[in-house]
Amino acid sequence: MFRRSFHRFCAAEEKRVGTRTVILGNHPVSATETYIAPRFCDNRIVSSKYTLWNFLPKNLFEQFRRIANFYFLIIFLVQVTVDTPTSPVTSGLPLFFVITVTAIKQGYEDWLRHRADNEVNKSTVYVIENAERVKKESEKIKVGDVVEVQADETFPCDLILLSSCTRDGICHVTTASLDGESNYKTHYAVHDTNALCSAESIDNLRAAIECEQPQPDLYKFVGRISIYNNSFEPVARSLGPENLLLKGATLKNTKKIYGVAVYTGMETKMALNYQGKSQKRSAVEKSINAFLIVYLLILLTKAAVCTGLKYLWQSNPHNDEPWYNQKTQKERDTFKVLKIFTDFLSFMVLFNFIIPVSMYVTVEMQKFLGSFFISWDKDFYDEDINEGALVNTSDLNEELGQVDYVFTDKTGTLTENSMEFIECCIDGYKYKGVTQETDGLSQTDGPVTYLEKADKNREELFLRALCLCHTVEIKINDTVDGATESADLTYVSSSPDEIALVKGAKKYGFTFLGIRNGHMKVENQRKEIEEYELLHTLSFDSVRRRMSVIVKTPAGDILLFCKGADSAVFPRVQNHEVAPIKVHVEQNAVDGYRTLCIAFKEITPDDYERIDRQLIEAKMALQDREEKMDKVFDDIETNMNLIGATAVEDKLQDQAAETIEALHAAGLKVWVLTGDKMETAKSTCYACRLFQTSTEILELTTKTVEDGERKEDRLHELLIEYRKKLLHEFPKNSRSLKKAWTEHQEYGLIIDGSTLSLILNSTQDSGSNSYKSIFLQICMKCTAVLCCRMAPLQKAQIVRMVKNLKGSPITLSIGDGANDVSMILESHVGIGIKGKEGRQAARNSDYSVPKFKHLKKLLLAHGHLYYMRIAHLVQYFFYKNLCFILPQFLYQFFCGFSQQPLYDAAYLTMYNICFTSLPILAYSLLEQHINIDTLTSDPRLYMKISGNAMLQLGPFLYWTLLAAYEGTVFFFGTYFISQTSSLEDNGKVIGNWTFGTIVFTVLVFTVTLKLALDTRFWTWINHFVIWGSLAFYMFFSFFWGGIIWPFLRQQRMYFVFAHMLSSVSTWLAIILLIFISLFPEILLILLKNVKRRSARSPTFELPTLLSYKHVDSGDS
Amino acid sequence: MAMNYNAKDEVDGGPACAPGGTAKNRRPDNTAFKQQRLPAWQPILTAGTVLPTFFIIGLIFIPIGIGIFVTSNNIREIEGNVFMYYGLSNFYQNHRRYVKSRDDSQLNGDSSALLNPSKECEPYRRNEDKPIAPCGAIANSMFNDTLELFLVGNGSYLTSIPLKKKGIAWWTDKNVKFRNPPGGEIPLEERFKGTTKPVNWVKPVYMLDSDQDNNGFINEDFIVWMRTAALPTFRKLYRLIERKSDLHPTLPAGQYYLNITYNYPVHSFDGRKRMILSTISWMGGKNPFLGIAYITIGSISFLLGVVLLVINHKYRNSSNTADITI
């Protein structure tokens, strides 16, 4: 909120669109131009929400924006202004308590943020001013300042690298704290400024940087630097993300750098990226709100009924104002309408406890404390990364027990994402296994040897391509020099595939030794070192699905090497080369390997000149750079020669199959959304038992669709056909679908990205809808769906589509890479895997776990328990407050609807705060109605709570009726018991406060014992809080009635409790009433038992997981 | 959770950690609490545990019920001390305006409250510019009929039955909660100086009784009246008739004559007055409800026990597992 307004303030000078011009060092560039320094925001990071003076008003404002708090505030204000039955303290105190606790918590959190902010803002930086190195606080940096950063320091703002004080003008940074990638990334200085290596020389530099306005994408930056040398014409150089050093990243392996600040403070990319995620709300929360409305209606009805009856009753004058109870003159003079209104409000106040303020506190506490159990679980601990599960939002704990659809990424989630080079094929000849050191490549793997081999030159070309066409770096240890020659090289790259390929090449004798001054060094099979000048890198992106490098061989030839997905490469090579390699590629894909095709092309010097010019031009472009680059890349990567293909294996994660099977058994639908290609993905799906051998696969892919003349017609046909098949299989009752799965033929659907977009963006207006709906119908009937060739946004699109299905199912997305972030954010619950592709997914997720297999326990055990606990908590809260207020309501019929409270104010206040709060909190944290081990081993238990089962109308009615019954018993039981002269053996009479206290005592005992009856897992904590609460109630009552309270006008509770307990009859009555109240509950438990018992077949056994489906289908 | 990255990065800043420093072990503690494996009693309601409970409840409740019922029914016999109650009906002592119309500080003898009673007492707070003591509607409407009981002897000769005024209020009320204004030896009238009597009263509060120990705020009739009843039909203890000797019944059989000095108007609000004579047992006055309820609940439990036993027996025959798990 505040931050947003802060931004607005910052950017008030200029609109966000367009570009900004940064003048280096804020020196006027030329004497002729009058230079007005534009205003940018300063380099202060403000993550805190409050300051000391605005904390109170702002925090209060924010708290009272919550509907519940606002309601209680209104009640409190009514109590203060109108003459109400209970003192304002009764609702003011709890509200005050809640508000204070929340304020303290938020204040503390903000203090932490302030401290962290200060640490960043006050940290020392060195700025070059007037040719001198000036020590400054970080927050003082202005846009345009030249900053010096030393090794292992973090960058104080977003900088354009000017000079790294090395010959090649590169520096290494790690962005671990930004995206979690701990590898070293190389950033480049512009050639022209690279030589400036001292404060003086930098200070003499006159340059202006033109760049886009800040935007949150970490990997995008477009800018241009104009350097004003002595000549009049400025030299312009393009700037890209490789020139931009981001705030938060750390300088590594480089002594110092000079950079100019372009984005500062809240406009840095890091700050823009950490803007709050949209709040996700759980289904339980929605249920609570629904119940709240029901109870509000009950409250309003009660108040209205009472008001109506009151005036009916008062129409008889001797009821309205008998001689013994006259009104004051003021009361008589009040307008009747106003009186009716205040009476209505008074009744509202009297009954307002039906909506307990403490429920919100308890729910919050339950969620907050409960989430610790996830991060504490040692089963989620992974040795390799030395980390356990992480909870980012505790609001969604119970949603884990409600998931209907699971969307999972494939690479890194189902699979390890630790790539291993398996084989390659060169010119259609297959190579597998390790070569002999002595003579090049040979087959040593297994008895079957391929005698044919590709041409030696082709072999070497292929391996050189592997060595050159990548963005792998060598991790240099402490010493900058020398390490390159050491025997074991550590390769680092953002993509594990590339490492596997480089290592693969090494196995065949070609070792990549690193880049030095723009030259790539490769050691060939003859141990000679070849140096290639790296001219251009046409970097990888997920749209092109390929990358290329242009290098100059030692001989002076210019070569382009390209590697990419088969679909991206095949159309760009000579046709005759494709066929032999395609066979291998397809075979590899079926085996579940990831394949890449390698191609090359020779570029003549003339052509190169043109290409070079085009590339530089595109790079320099300020507008639409992306499109221009793409176009140039597209032009360059044509007419290539295919050399071969590689196959890399991505191992399945540990227990991935078991987990998927368990999820299936739990009634969840698992969809795999992957960017990978169909064959690979399909085989992975079979491997992890998403598809069984018996599953009939329906395919909606480019392959099947393109058979027909017109794609859409064919698609339409297919859709109709599939739907017919499925509808025939599942007759109408889609409700029993979950059961139906196990009984019928299973179907799996495979769809790819392009077909999906065809379905979703069909041109036919009328048809588009029906396409989509037919597609959804098909999807819903399939056990498993595989979506391949998905772009990140398409993943989110699918999730959104399913989310909006009828009955709005709960979706869960799990993934590990940056490409899964959109789907993680889109789904109800997002789970990140702390994988190898950085931490972006984990950071944006609600929960993160180290491995896919942990999903099983997370959902089946934790999710189930959390849901059960919170559902019970919610129901119990409404129940206990209805019990509490109903006698008060009934009492109105006996006290002339005069709003006389039945209970003392202290009891009204303490009931929810002290007497009945801790047992339910302990229950909602510790209860395990089913053992954790049983929950994980029998996934079907998960179905029992699906569809928010415990918060549906049925259970809600049950609890409400139970509460109504008990409330009636409390009141009328006491009523009948007090129909006597005296309850004591000395004949003395009791008054209305004793009456109320009897009801209240029965109430406190009954609701606590009801919880005790529900508790199936009695730890010492449960014992302590349940019996402790009751003991506390007794103690408090004695204490409260034991003293003449000096500051109270009324001593109505004086000795009431002690006097009450001195009577045997009261004891007997209390015991009796407690028992009568609990009787139906006990009876119900027994009846349920008997029913279940009779329903249960004698030979029932918990099926073991793997054979579960067979057992089940055999059984039913 | 907007930008708590700073704090977080400090913790898991990974490579930013000082080189050589030992990596923090993030392995979760293997404690029973954190792993949700605290030793716990997991009660499983089985037929074996539930059935005896039902029988036991039945066996306990039925005798208690019978005991209460019998005691309650015997109360009629006028033996031992007899308690004399007056009853009012349709009198809303529990009306909110009425309940709060009192000043406990004043009644507790607080001097400032005596002369400046609480606002809650309105419109019975001041009269003729003097504070009312005791103030408020409750005090003002104190029951002021006088009941006298005579035994009609031979030849219409009336023997007055001695009625004891003291011992009818709660001990704590009489001795702690209600106190006359301070003053030690000063006569009560002086201590109430500056106040006036409630409007409806005939006599001021310091002339309620001749016995100084039962006069002023600590008059027991007054204290009893001040304990507001829970329901519009109520009884209040009026007098005790103590048993003189074990040989004679407290109230021997015969004709009695009740003399009522009628002061208290009830017709205006459709009220009724009653006088009740009752003995009291260990469980208080006569009340059949408690006994019947105990007997009923006990019987139902017992019956259910039997029914469940039968059902359980049937299932035991069909399957060998005796447990019914929840």
TrEMBL record, chain A:
Record keyword Membrane present: yes
Membrane topology: Multi-pass membrane protein
Domain P-type ATPase C-terminal, chain residue ranges per copy: 842-1089
Domain named P-type ATPase N-terminal: residues: 37-91
Required cofactor(s): Mg(2+)
Any one cellular-component term (Gene Ontology): endoplasmic reticulum membrane
GO process terms (BP): phospholipid translocation
GO molecular function, one term: ATPase-coupled intramembrane lipid transporter activity
UniProt EC number: 7.6.2.1
Subunit text: Component of a P4-ATPase flippase complex which consists of a catalytic alpha subunit ATP11C and an accessory beta subunit TMEM30A.
Biological role: Catalytic component of a P4-ATPase flippase complex which catalyzes the hydrolysis of ATP coupled to the transport of aminophospholipids, phosphatidylserines (PS) and phosphatidylethanolamines (PE), from the outer to the inner leaflet of the plasma membrane. Major PS-flippase in immune cell subsets. In erythrocyte plasma membrane, it is required to maintain PS in the inner leaflet preventing its exposure on the surface.
Name the UniProt record assigns to this protein: Phospholipid-transporting ATPase
Protein's gene: ATP11C
UniProtKB/TrEMBL annotation, chain B:
A Gene Ontology term for the protein's cellular component: transport vesicle membrane
Gene field: TMEM30A
Family per record: Belongs to the CDC50/LEM3 family.
Compartments, as annotated in UniProt: Apical cell membrane; Cytoplasmic vesicle, Secretory vesicle membrane; Golgi apparatus; Membrane
Keywords for this protein: Cell membrane, Cytoplasmic vesicle, Disulfide bond, Glycoprotein, Golgi apparatus, Lipid transport, Membrane, Transmembrane, Transmembrane helix, Transport
Region (Disordered) residue spans: 1-28
GO biological process, one term: phospholipid translocation
InterPro entries cross-referenced by the UniProt entry: CDC50/LEM3_fam
Lineage of producing organism: Eukaryota, Metazoa, Chordata, Craniata, Vertebrata
The species this protein was found in: Rhinolophus ferrumequinum
Pfam families: CDC50 (PF03381)
Residues annotated as transmembrane: 44-70, 289-311
Primary location group: membrane
Topology within the bilayer: Multi-pass membrane protein
Name the UniProt record assigns to this protein: Cell cycle control protein
